[in-house]
Structures are given as structure tokens and as C-alpha cells.
Amino acid sequence: MSAIAFSNVAMGIHTIVFPWLIVGVLELSPSRLGLAQMAILLPNLLFILPGGVVSDGRHRGSWLSLLYALYLVPVGLIVVALTTEQLSFVIIFLFAMIFGTLSAFVQPARESLLGFADPELMHQAVAKIVSIQFIAQGVGFLIAGQMDALGLVVLLVIQITMFVASAIWIRRSHPALKISQTTPSQVRKPIAELQEGFNLFLENPALLHLVFLVFATGFLAFGVYLVGMPLIAREGYDLGAEFYAALQIAFTLGIVTANLGVMRRKKMFNRPGRLMIISFLWRGSLVGIVALLPSLWVLFPVVFVWGFFSGLSMTLGRTILHSQVSHQLRSRAASVYQLSLFGGAPLGAWFCGMAIEWVGLSSTFIFIACMTLLVSAIAALKSPLWFLARV
After folding, report:
1. pTM, entire model
2. pLDDT score for 84
């Protein structure tokens, strides 16, 4: 949990600094921001499935420690570009591709560690991890909100320190065994293992519809969150990085509140799939309210509730997944799940950026809200998730 906390402080800093380098430092267009966000998410399409296969065949602690340490390469690239005054969109695009590739390998390996939790308390384990992730990200947002006082280079050095701490602590929490976990006679067949991961979803209609809904979340909700929110701060309210960080903190508090509530439950919800669809419906409604650019007294509570339903949906989706997949296949299942989310997200980020340039900020938000409501209605009427009982 300490390792996850350190890494998510770094990710919180990244969430604020990365888009602000584009819209606040280089002052580029919404379409460039969408393209950059797509670049950081696109490697998931290419590498997250191989990442799940590779992770299932390696010792998690050693593998994750190496991956966290490698984050120093892309962050170091930005530090060098800033100190030499050579920062450009090309440098940022290269950073995004390297950073996204590392994340594609980190996510399934880290997710598979939930396999060590008690199956009866899986919802609590997922809620604890999500709470820690977003509390730590909130700390990262607070630190990044001091961008004007600290400076970008100092922020990035703090981020590097957090990744190094993550590498050390994940190794300490999950030390390598003296005896290999595999025998010499075992010969791995990556393509067959990859197909085995896909078959889990093809053979289970509820899991298949789960990844459809997660893809819609990536395309609609993630797109507007990654591209629309920094532009809401800059163009909608004509405010800076501190305001953007404050919006992120409000969103994160909502996520944490939802998961603290889940942690208090002794048993999982009776209809987790139905609740996940309802939470998706609510997020669409709230995006529609944000589109109206309400006063700050309305905006911050709306963003908080938006975060609440997002946090609830994250926990429900991951709990459904882990409850129906064996530990031996969990990395591969997690990689397919993450592929659905991050397969939709880069497309959504690109679409959102282009749409804002074409029709404006509010119109794009309203369109995405309407699409979310439509997907929710179809899922409620047609999806087996609506009838999925607690497992």
C-alpha cells in the first residue's frame, strides 16, 4: 500500500503538470492537447495485453520495481528539456509515448496483486486500494497546485523521488523467492496464453458486457475528463493551474468518499452490475451540468458527486472482474479489462479535443452527456450486467 501511495503521488503530479505543459506553458490548441493525451494512452492498445502475459510469468515485486524505476527516463527527459529551454510539442509527444508504454506494463502487474486478497472480502480490498490511490493522487494534486511557487523542475524532481520510493517499497513488500515459481520443464506459449485471457470474456456474457461498458467509460467519461477539465479551467473560467488542481481534488474526494463507503460494507452489493450502469448514467447527467459553466458554488459539488460515482464504478467493475477470474489468469484478465478502458480513452481524448475546436466547450460536453445517457439506457435494457447477482 505504501508503494501504491508513493506511485500515485507521482501520478497526481503528472495529471496536473502534463496537460498544463501543453495548455499553460506552450499555450497550444485543444486539438494538440487531445493528441497528446491520445499519445499517452495509445501504447495501452499495443502493449497492455502483452504486458498481462509477461506479468503472469514474472515475479511481481521484482518486475514492478524495475518498471517504476524506468519512469525516471520520460520524466528526466522533460526535466532536461525545461532546464535547457528546449521544451516543444515533439518532446512532450515522445514523453507521452514512453510514459504510456511503461504504464501499459505496470497496470496488469499491479492489478494482479489483488489476487492475494480474501475472495469474500474482495470488494473491501478493491475499495482500500482505490482509496489509497486517490488519496495519494490528491496529495499529488495539492503539490502540483503549488506550481507557481515551486516551479516545474522542482515538481518533476519530487515526482522522480516518488517513483524511486515506489520501486523500493514494492520490492520490499513482495520479495523474490529463493526457489523459482516455475519449473524448467514449463514452456510458455504467449499467443495461447493471450487467447486464454480473451476466452474468459468471450465465454462469459456478463464479463463481455462489462468490458463494453468500460470501453464506453474510456471513450466518453475519460475523454471529457482528460481534455475537457483543463480547458474548463483555462477557457471556461479563465483561471490557472491552481483552479484545475482544485477541481481534481474535488473529484478525488468524491472517489475516496465512495470507496470509504464500500469499505464499511461487510458484503458486496446484491446487484453490482446494475449499480455500475446507474453510476454511468449519473456521470452523464453531471457532465451536462458542467457544460452549463455554473457558478463555483455549484461546480465544485457537481465535480465531487461526479467523482463519487466514478469511484463507485471503478470499484464495482474491478470487483466483478476479480470475483469471476482465477488467480492464475488475473493479470491477463486485468490487461483485457484495462485495454477496454484505455482503448476508448485515447479515442475519446482525441475526439473531445477536436470537437471542442469545432463546436465549442459547452456543446461538446452536452453531446457527451447525451451519448452517456443513451449508452446507459441500452445497457439497462439489453445487458446481462443489469441482472448480475453478487458473487
Report:
1. 0.71
2. 92
